[in-house]
């Protein structure tokens, strides 16, 4: 058995050894060149509705508190004032002084921004960007 293995190995050594050597040499540089380079910042927020505070009627009892908060934040994100307030805290503050710059920031912001519930009461907010300062 061992003798047949040794004979097969020496007869077809290039067919056996070439794939484990060639594949990393070919795929490695391609993977390094095409690797995504972005920075990601995320925050987990505990969301709860205080029962002892008088609340408004916009709280939907049929969905989770995290989903309620996502709906509220989505409503706030639709306003121009909130987006401009966020933009003025980023490196793009000079860009939002023109309507074209404001639209460019809006596209950049909504491309990298995401919210999703990580449980019934935990809301995760994430932002991805190629600029680390913008990500924070």
Mean pLDDT over all positions: 84
Low-confidence stretches: none
Q: What is the C-alpha radius of gyration, as a whole number of Å? A: 26 Å
Q: Quickly count the domains.
A: 2
Class based on secondary structure composition and strand pairing = alpha+beta
* Main sheet specs: 3 strands, antiparallel
Order of strands in the sheet with the most strands? 1-3-2
Overall, the morphology is elongated
Topology, number of strands: 3
Amino- and carboxy-terminal Cα gap: 62 Å
SSE succession: HHEHHHEEH
Q: How much strand content do the residues show?
A: 15-25%
The portion of residues assigned to helices is 40-55%
Helical segment count: 6
SSE layout and pairing:
Blueprint: H1 2-11, H2 13-33, E1 39-46, H3 65-77, H4 80-87, H5 99-112, E2 113-117, E3 122-129, H6 132-135
Antiparallel strand pairs: 1-3, 2-3
Structural summary, described in words:
There is one protein chain. This protein is of the alpha+beta class. The chain has 2 domains: 2-33, no CATH class; 39-135, no CATH class. The chain contains 6 helices and 3 strands. The chain starts with a helix and ends with a helix. The model has no long low-confidence stretch (mean pLDDT 84).
Give a short summary of the structure.
The chain has 136 residues and is of the alpha+beta class.
What distinguishing features does this structure have?
single chain, 136 residues, alpha+beta, 3-stranded antiparallel beta sheet, 3 strands
């Amino acid at each position: 058995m061992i003798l047949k293995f040794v004979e097969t190995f020496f007869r077809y050594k290039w067919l056996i050894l070439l794939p484990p050597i060639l594949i990393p040499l070919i795929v490695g540089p391609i993977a390094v060149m095409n690797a995504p380079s972005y920075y990601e910042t995320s925050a987990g927020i505990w969301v709860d509705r205080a029962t002892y505070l008088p609340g408004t009627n916009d709280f939907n009892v049929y969905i989770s508190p995290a989903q309620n908060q996502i709906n509220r934040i989505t409503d706030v994100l639709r306003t121009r004032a909130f987006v401009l307030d966020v933009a003025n805290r980023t490196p793009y503050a000079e860009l939002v002084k023109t309507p074209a710059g404001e639209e460019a920031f809006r596209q950049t912001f909504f491309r990298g921004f995401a919210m999703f519930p990580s449980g019934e009461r935990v809301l995760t907010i994430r932002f991805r960007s190629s600029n680390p300062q913008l990500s924070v």
